[in-house]
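= Paired protein data =
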Amino acid sequence: MTDQPTSDVREDVTPSPSRFAREPRVRLPAGLVYKGTTYRDVVVDRRTGYDDEAIAGGKAGNNGAKAISMLLQRCILSIDGLVEEKRNRFVRIDKRIVEALSIPDRDFLFFAIHALGTDPKIKVSVKCPEPDCSQMNPRVLDVRDLEIVYWPDGEDLVLRDISLLDGFEVMRKQDEWTSYKDELSWHIGNGKLHEDLGGLPDHKVATSAIAACLRLPDGGTIDTETARRMYSTDRDELLRIVQEESPGVDLVSDCSCSLCGHEWSARIDPSLFFGGGAQEPTRVSKRRKSARKKKRRQLRKR
């Protein structure tokens, strides 16, 4: 594997389809920024029994994000300008490259690899969000139906001008608190953060993600205690904005409960496929779903 750093964003040489096709050469929706250069063109391999055994053998523990990292290290065959084509497809690429991939690109590559197989469908169970129900409902996700949105070349992977409903306070000096509500930004996480979050209990993931990715107007960060003090309405609003405006695979799926009849929209997390397919996805309101589609249309026009 060789590094060939340059100072420019590489020109596009691979088409940017809005749906998955059974093609080994793909273009990353966000783009891998590695040592100052952006790389977007990747060749992937199909999964093998070697991959299945490595993941099922417990090397990743219960961390689905680490399982994705293991899969990508083996199944990425080349990255134009960064990783030369493998002579032996079972050799793993440098883990630092996989950790540098953004979370949207990692999710995208997972589905691109799956799309190379003979069955484009993935079985998953989603939990009904109604407190009095909690029924597990089977869903079949067809990779061919998933929409892909690409981030413009040359732009930082940052969501800007975020406004919250209530805001929060941060202690900047001894006993001096400053309120923040508008002009916030979200720095989309990479594979290292993905693995860190994957090792946490489910109820701590949102807090840690907010603390790691949210930025104040002056570029400052917040700690986990500040993220915990945020109102739940603001936390939910923030995570929904991130889902709507981030590049990558649109993983929001329409769901209905076979027991109580409740209907809702939810985001499916690919890293949970390695944990048996039991999903408790984040809910997305109908209003938010319409806004998300409008935003994605705007991104495609840029």
Observations:
- The radius of gyration is 20 Å.
- The chain has a mean pLDDT of 84.
- The first strand starts at residue 25 and ends at 34.
